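hey can u check if this looks right to u? its 86 residues, i copy pasted from the old doc so theres a chance i mangled smth
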Amino acid sequence: MGVQIQRLVESHGASQVRQWADEGMTVDTMGKPRDMRAFRERQQERSAEVPKDIERGMRSQSSAVATHTTRRRKPVTHKCPTRFGM
């Protein structure tokens, strides 16, 4: 994701990217006029009680769930003799 942000800064400038982040946009939305317009429309439809960064929070939770539910590898046990165990 750092590469995406770096490219956005190079193409749109740091202040613009910061402004989008302050609006609560996800990195995937930034710099895409159609997605940004849809995001802003959704923001206007939300009540004032809903945090403006709600979409970033939802993305973080889904990423955390995806990370948490990934299969873990079994620990590797080596069965080769060592110089101490011979």
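The radius of gyration is 22 Å.
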